[in-house]
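question for whoever is on the cluster today: can someone run the full assembly for these? two chains, 228 residues total. i dont have access anymore since they changed the login thing
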Amino acid sequence: GDSVTQMEGPVTLSEEAFLTINCTYTATGYPSLFWYVQYPGEGLQLLLKATKADDKGSNKGFEATYRKETTSFHLEKGSVQVSDSAVYFCALSISNFGNEKLTFGTGTRLTIIP
Amino acid sequence: DGGITQSPKYLFRKEGQNVTLSCEQNLNHDAMYWYRQDPGQGLRLIYYSQIVNDFQKGDIAEGYSVSREKKESFPLTVTSAQKNPTAFYLCASSKVAGARDTQYFGPGTRLTVL
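^ ran it for u. tokens below:
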């Protein structure tokens, strides 16, 4: 079945460091790919998405490129801030004869130290 | 402001009692979803509804029930048959139930069964 694998956390970085959170997927068709962010005690917010190969999603300084050849959608940010501390979820969605759903990775907790 | 409301934020119940979690959206979205979040397991789909008066089971529907009598409301009942109901429950909605359509999440309800 469809699945998402993302790097284990927790990840701890200093402010202004470069961030990469790895995400790879397995899917039988051509999925859309998403990154969601969850701040403490809150629901999930869409951070960025890409719907076809080679698309780059970007938002708030975060970027991810849909790589079909490596089945990856790694999240990157050039200079992280304390306010980026949160849990990040990679997810995919694929059409399946009306059975539409998001499949999530297990999440990566990110902590940024001043 | 449009959005998704979940109430209450925290809920405590005794073992063996049914409990209903509320989810309301004023985004005029057709599709609504319920997810369960457990530590280290990401989000898992419980039920989803693509249209009023219709809903489908997700990956972990056993011990849960839903109704969709109005477009804006999708309540989830956690029954006594659910073996391990303590979790964080998230409701989401999307304009249509499409693989490429963004899901928007509510703030969640944390259920603790004593």
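summary bc i know u wont read the tokens: The interface with chain B takes residues 4, 31-32, 34, 36, 42-46, 49, 51, 89, 93-96, 98-102, 104-107 of chain A (CB under 8 Å). The longest strand of chain A covers residues 86-93.
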